[in-house]
Amino acid sequence: MKAWKKTIVILFAKAYNDAKEYVFVLYLEGKRMDTLDELYFTMLKNAADGKVELAPEGADPKIVECLVLPDDGTVVRVKPCLCPPDERHCEDACEWDALKPGGEVGIAVDPKKCVGCQACIDACEMESLKTKKDIIPVVQELHQYDGPVYALVAPAIAGQFGADVTLGKMRATLKALGFTGMLEVAAFADILTLKEALEFDKNIRSENDFQLTSCCCPMWIAMIKKLYHQLLPNVPGSVSPMIAGGRTVKALHPQAKTVFIGPCLAKKAEKNEPDIEGAIDYVLTYQELRDLLTVTNLNPAEMPEDSQPHASTTGISYAYAGGVAAAVKRTLEKLNPDRKIKLATRRADGVPGCKEMINDILAGNRDGNFFEGMGCIGGCVGGPRAIIPKEEGKKQVQAYADAAEFETPMENPYVIGMLKALGFNTVEEFLTKSHLYDRQF
Ligand code: SF4
Ligand code: SF4
Questions:
Q1: Which residues form the 4Fe-4S ferredoxin-type domain (predicted)?
Q2: Ligand 1 atom closest to the CA of 93, numbered from 1
Q3: If I label 241, which of 83, 86, 226, 319 is the partner at 20 to 30 A Cα–Cα?
């Protein structure tokens, strides 16, 4: 299409879509229209105030449903697509074949194929795509659910709500919001580190053997499952720390609801994967939690300390690129210091970098026997819904990891206590006798 024609189409589509967004949303008292974001904050405030009616009169029921019952995917189209077929940047950006032309909206997202990478949202010049938010239903659960509701926070949380907001202050904040308690997902990353180290020790017997990290990043796993499935035999079947945390909470408290809080959108898609669904009920991002703190006027920095952090250095390090590989290497050195074939790591972050590394593996240019891939540049501190820049996030997480009282889960009494509650005396016994953290890819 010629440039001037394209400009006219884009200008027309932008104007149409802007108008459409207002039509989509609501009409208040016959006088005023609110944007989608305004509707979101109005409903979130109403939910936090314990009101039953969340949406103002006249709000578009489709949008209200999407904010209150968000469980059929990660990406939602808020305006119809008006781009000509050869200008659909969202479709070009999706590496997962999850966007298909057709239907009333012009192009639709297939929630079964979408991995929540956010590439289409970034590519859409019309801002017609948004990510689903789970925060409103979570607030409703906090007000209405009779049983316990646990928050499971990802280790990238260090520094996200201010440099002086410790994990203890964050626990007090979450309890003030109505959560029963807060668990650090890093403690479950700790246990999975040992699982990966044990798998390496069992499986890597010759210079030709190699292993890919299995547990941490859903984008990395989606990449292998969907694009490079010939490598699946080299990926041990483990759940992610998020799923491990959810399963553990539900094993100990079957009535509990579990809410993961992290910087990641792909986790929203991960929780619905058929073989692991049910472990986590909701996935919130740090930005959604920040929105809730805004409408409730709660400042985590002013909260009291509520107990000490309980994760180990190795598990906390999962939050930045290179952390998983370093954790498994260190744990293997402790587990089997005399091992002949040492663990040699190679890592990549960002989808293009991960693909390049995988293509090298397939071409025989391995240069390592243990491969870590993270979907985001910098790892989870660079996740799409982090609040602070990834460099600052990494600095804060490293300080949190350095201050940890225990280096690995093997000597961590909090981890051991949790396993004892499940009926096991040591991490090794738990991993050899329990299938709670197993998964078949
Ligand atoms: S979020 Fe990623 S996987 Fe999902 S539709 Fe968009 S580009 Fe495709
Ligand atoms: S690296 Fe990115 S996609 Fe992967 S788990 Fe972390 S935030 Fe999610």
A1: 105-134
A2: 7
A3: 226
Within 10 Å of residue 211's Cβ, how many Cβ atoms?
Answer: 19
Token look-up 């119809």 returns: 80
Q: Which residues of 363-387 are buried (b: 16+ CB within 10 A; e: fewer)?
A: eeebebbbbbbbbbebbbbbbbbbb
Which protein residue's CA is at the shortest distance from atom 6 of ligand 2?
380
**Is the shortest distance between the CB of 149 and ligand 1 below 6 Å?**
no
| Cα radius of gyration rounded to whole Å, the chain | 23
Q: What is the CATH number of the domain that holds 92?
A: 3.30.70.20
User: pLDDT (tens digit, 9 = 90+) per residue, 187-219?
Assistant: 999 889 988 999 999 999 999 999 999 778 999
Confidence check: pLDDT of 22 > 70: no
Residue with tokens 């002086």: 164
Domain boundary among 110, 132, 154: 132
Task: Give residue-wise pLDDT tens across range 220-275.
Answer: 999 999 889 999 999 999 999 999 999 999 999 999 999 999 999 999 999 999 99
